[in-house]
Structure formats: C-alpha cells, structure tokens
UniProtKB/TrEMBL annotation:
UniProt key word Membrane: no
Family matches, as PROSITE patterns: THYMIDYLATE_KINASE (PS01331)
Domain Thymidylate kinase-like: 8-201
Domain of life, source organism: Bacteria
Binding site for ATP: 10-17
Protein name per Swiss-Prot or TrEMBL: Thymidylate kinase
Family assignment from sequence similarity: Belongs to the thymidylate kinase family.
Enzyme Commission (EC) number: 2.7.4.9
Keywords from the named record: ATP-binding, Kinase, Nucleotide biosynthesis, Nucleotide-binding, Transferase
GO MF, one example: ATP binding
Catalytic activity, as annotated: dTMP + ATP = dTDP + ADP
Enzyme class per UniProt: transferase
Amino acid sequence: MTGKFISFEGPDGAGKTSVLREIIQRLTVAYGDQLLVTREPGGAHNPVAEAIRDVVLSPDYPAMDNKTEALLYAASRREHIQQTIKPALAQDKLVLSDRYVDSSIAYQGAGREIGFEVVLTLNQFAIEDFWPDRTIFLDVRPEIGLQRIQEQRQDEINRLDLDSLEFHQRVYAGYQKLIQINPARFIVINGEQPLPQVVEDTWQAMKKEI
Ligand SMILES: Nc1ncnc2c1ncn2[C@@H]1O[C@H](COP(=O)(O)OP(=O)(O)OP(=O)(O)O)[C@@H](O)[C@H]1O
Ligand SMILES: Cc1cn([C@H]2C[C@H](O)[C@@H](COP(=O)(O)O)O2)c(=O)[nH]c1=O
C-alpha cells in the first residue's frame, strides 16, 4: 500500500470538522481526486458503515448497552477499512479520516469504562493492526468543546453529545493516555486558539507529513 492515512481526533466540539473543511480546500488544489476525506463512524461511499452510524448516533436509542455500542463502532470501522480506506490507499491516495480507532479506545474504553485493553483487543479483530501513519489531535478541554456544541450547534446534537461532563472528562483522559503511549504517531494541536490559528498550525504540521 502506497498512499498515506492521517486521522483526526479530539473530544466532541474540538473543531475537527471546521479545521478539516479549511484543510480540504487547500489540499484539493494539489491533490484533486487523489484526496479522500472520510469519517467515522461511517465512511465515504460506504452505505453499510453509514447505516451503522445512523443507528449508533441516534438519540432515539438512549439506553443502548455499552458493549453493543463498542461492537457497532468496530463493525462500522471494519467496513470502512475494507471498502473505503484500503482501496484508496492502494490507489496511492491521501486519506484523511475524521476519527478512527483512537475514538473507540477513548470513548468506549475510557469514557464508558469498558477498559482500554478490552476495547483495543476488540478492535484488533476489526483493524488487524492497521493504524494511521499520523494522528492529529485537536486538544480542547471537554468543558470548552461541550460549551461550543451547546452554544453553536443545537441542530446537530448526537447521542454522545448528550452524555455527562464526567463521561467527556474520562474520554479526554483516555486521549491523553493514548498520546503518552504513542508519541511518534500523535501530533497535538492547541485547539483552544481562534479557528484560523488552529487551521494554520494543523496545516503546517500536515505539510511536513505529506
Ligand atoms: N477554534 C475554535 N474556536 C471557537 N469555536 C470553534 C473553534 N473550532 C470550532 N468551533 C465551533 O465549535 C463547534 C464545533 O466545531 P466542529 O463541529 O468543527 O467540531 P468537531 O470536532 O467536528 O465536533 P464533533 O466531533 O462533536 O462533531 C462549531 O460550532 C464550530 O463553529
Ligand atoms: C468513531 C467513534 C466515534 N465515537 C463518538 C464520538 C462522537 O461523539 C460521535 C461521532 O460524532 P461526530 O460528530 O461525527 O464526531 O461518536 C465513539 O464513541 N466511538 C468511536 O469509535
């Protein structure tokens, strides 16, 4: 496989979507069709993964069992890897994904308290040790991310946005542990700066990678 795979991670409201929108504009000029932007749960041109997204994020299922949730994210990811990411990399594309397996380890492993290692093991069945080349983490404290969502994005609130601050603090701590364990893969960007500065820092970091 010859392309490059970069994932974007961060707590809810960190700014991934906003930053990616700007980065895509800059990259499209040089990459054109060789750029694939995708997301989890779900995935570009991936109806099965997107159907799982609809179920797992729907506020209609507030009482979903934690392990069911973890399995759904892993199933969606498997489909995403097999049908979207790997075929694109085989065509030498640059693949940018808004979230990947680190989200499961942070949200289900730490946030839901299923356990870091348990969720990693579960996901190894899905990913078969297929990791991103680099992971950009937008570092925003959960209080700030949730405040942004509540103030600015009332229309798109999903099931996990509605979880408690304590849940999101555990997620954040999970991410910090992942960064500590994988210092070579993670690039940490201060996401609490004004958006243009976050975009610029991300852009400079990405230019070194691509
Ligand atoms: N640096 C920033 N400063 C202030 N507000 C921001 C910043 N970045 C993004 N926002 C705002 O915060 C909200 C959440 O941003 P965005 O949807 O990009 O985050 P996200 O990481 O994709 O969130 P989620 O994972 O929950 O989808 C939006 O209303 C966006 O305009
Ligand atoms: C991949 C993945 C995601 N999540 C959570 C994180 C967010 O709360 C939502 C996705 O919403 P977004 O607006 O598209 O970022 O799902 C998770 O808990 N586990 C995962 O593996």
